[in-house]
Amino acid sequence: MRLPKLVSSKYFIFLVLLTVVSVALFFPEVANARPGGGHSYSGGSSSGGSGGGNGGAAVLFELFFRIFLFLPPFVQIILILSIIVSVIWYHLRHQGGDDPVHNHVQSSGMDAYHFQQNQLANQAKQQKIDALILRDPAFSEILFLDFSHSLYHKFYTTINTPTIRSILPFLSDNIKLFMRSDMAKTSPRTEVVVANMQISDIVIMDEQIKIIVDFQSNYSTLQNDKNYRHILKERWVLVRNIKTMSTSPEGLRDLACPNCGAPNDFNDAGVCGSCNTLIEAGEMNWMLDKIILQEHQHYRADTLGTYAPEVGTNAPTIIDPYLKEKGAQFIALHQLEDPAAYWGTFMEKVVETTYQTMYKAWSDRDDWKSVRHLLSDRLYEANAFWIHLYQEKGYFNRLENITLEHIEPARITMDNNYESITVRVFASAIDYTEDNNGRLIGGNKQKPRSFTEYWTFIRKIGVEKPESAFDTTQCPNCGAPADQMSDTSVCGYCGTKTNLGDFSWVLSNIA
Ligand SMILES: [Zn+2]
Ligand SMILES: [Zn+2]
């Protein structure tokens, strides 16, 4: 018998090593997920055949394959058998092995150096925003981001269609040239989801103001009858004449004519059909001047994404350098006699209630519309996309025993239109994914999982409805049950759009 000799030989070590590697490769960590930050596609390794990713594994495989060729035949046979056994074991353990849900949980972790850099960048950005508001009192970061989001959405869903003319006055000649290039000549994108967006810089020049906005997004395209999901990081440069002032909030959001306010009625030359005025890009409103593609991957749309473990749970909270100053302004503006009591009520009535209500709706999956009025359009739609995918797959992402352990204020902003409060929440929940038959797909039904997220609530300046009256089950305007909200969050009882922060706090972003 040669076997005992084999066991004592160096081949055995190699065999064990190879088995470990092959088992590890066949056991991707199965994931759990959450609304908001928990649902962007990973930019890292992918299971769906994207550009980047599995290079390390490929090199390992090649190395093993080369060594394999030099081995005695009986060792080769044993190695092959061990791989087969590993695969069978894997499939048995996964009861036939449906493809697991892989989700990427966004990281909020960073080291001390990047933390400090981030603080400095935030400080500089806030100073520039405040300087811009001094120049243009109607400018609002929240409104500008709404405008950028509308433009992003319209741009990609109408590219290479006649409908793109409705946003022509918001596109520079650079962009119009780009649209005629081969790079842009694909079908319009569908299911455009902006996972995250923020102003990264403001540049004030002699004649122009530039605002740089960073997007993390994904969208679908149809190529050769196959559906692809694209994951992107883009930097958009938006430009406006320095003398121009911000238009009305509604006009900005709806990409309306900056001259007369009529919605989306421009001809191919950019003349408004309502006031007959040629709207020159960048003169009366912001225009998109440049798109810098920073990352791009694509997957066949039948994969749900990839998973990376949660990191950064213990990273220090990114506190805005102006938190104290802005907090004092907030207290003065609202004439808060007992600030501590106010924050207590805000955390309990607004943050915690929204948190519990939203996670319950997410977990129940098919009643996502019940939180329509509590979330901004972007946040609602981004998560609706994921819910739709789960419905298609027949999966539920269950969140149970959600415990909000701790809430820390992180940023407060105020301009002449809106105020916002960003808090960092530290929470834990039992988080697992199962299919319609209750079969476990990923996660853990017993062990709670800790996570942390930054939540930003917005509200219109001058809305003084007390936080103690915040009620997630009611229309914030008319007080009727919030069971008749339309797809765009218009209340079926009072006919008002309810999720712009016009009546009460609305959750605008999760990062
Ligand atoms: Zn007009
Ligand atoms: Zn209502």
TrEMBL record:
Pfam families: Tim44 (PF04280). Coiled coil: none annotated. Keywords: Membrane, Transmembrane, Transmembrane helix. The chain crosses the membrane at residues 63-90. Residues 327-511 form the Tim44-like domain. SUPFAM superfamilies: NTF2-like (SSF54427). SMART domains: Tim44 (SM00978). This is Tim44-like domain-containing protein. It comes from uncultured Aureispira sp.
